[in-house]
Hints:
alpha/beta, single chain, 44% helix, four-stranded parallel sheet, binds iron/sulfur cluster, binds 1,3-dihydroxyacetonephosphate, globular
Amino acid sequence: MTIQNEILRLKKEKDAVILAHYYVRPEIQAIADYTGDSFYLSRIAEKLENHTIVFCGVTFMGESGALLSPDREVLIPDAEADCPMAHMVSRSDVETARKTWDDLAVVCYINSTAEIKSWSDVCVTSSNALQIVRSLPNQNILFIPDRNLGRYVAEQVPEKHVMVVNGFCPVHEQIKAQEILMLKESHPDAEMLAHPECSEEILKLADYIGSTSGIISHAAESQKQEFIIATETGVQYELEQKRPDGRFYFPKTEPVCQDMKKITLEKILFVLRTGENSAHISESLAAAARQPLDRMLELAE
Ligand code: 13P
Ligand code: SF4
């Protein structure tokens, strides 16, 4: 029996469902029941009624799944698959801002640990950050931990005073303007699609800025056939499903998230067989960390 068939058999036996982010390996996206961006996966996780959810992504995604589906068993195929940006803000950054600014909302990118979420007023993802920040009653916003998405929100929502901290995604920040300019020169008809975790110089070169789902839907509906893609290379799998006639060009230094790639079919099989690596969050932390996620789901409706 192939490993894929064994996973399918165990999935049925254990009433399990597989969720995968667009950055995981293509063979995992191929067997997943649901594939999507961070917002889509959070919404799905909240609604699922299966006994077990295997969350194929970095640990903050599994944690968010466990927060939103407290009655389900959420399994993380590799507990070491951690997003470095998810830790890039300290409690004192948040406490200082709360003491300094009246009328402040702490807006937390979902790419953060459960503990960081628990210090925050509302979570956002890259697909709903603009909409949610615009809808908040507060004038002052502390956006944590991603300085790039925070800066993009500040530009797009000028009516708010948006402050950022110093977090960043190393995978998106490594993309260099020079590489994009070279691609634009060799493919002058291509549209350039970028994720807002990229630096300012990259976003200035973009024709479209959006989450992984946004980038995929934009390419699916575009009149163009060639696309320069400024995000993690895992999106290529879904881009090719949606636009089999499309041509996709990634920066030469290949933005690859090594943590997302730690998830393998073998590790999925292992957690399904053993039930190990259950995402567990203490009751006291879960209550505080779930609130900003619930508020995100309400405000994004
Ligand atoms: P989205 O899929 O929500 O755009 O998130 C990108 C990302 O970096 C996830 O780690
Ligand atoms: Fe974190 Fe960046 Fe990897 Fe996303 S791509 S999981 S933000 S390191």
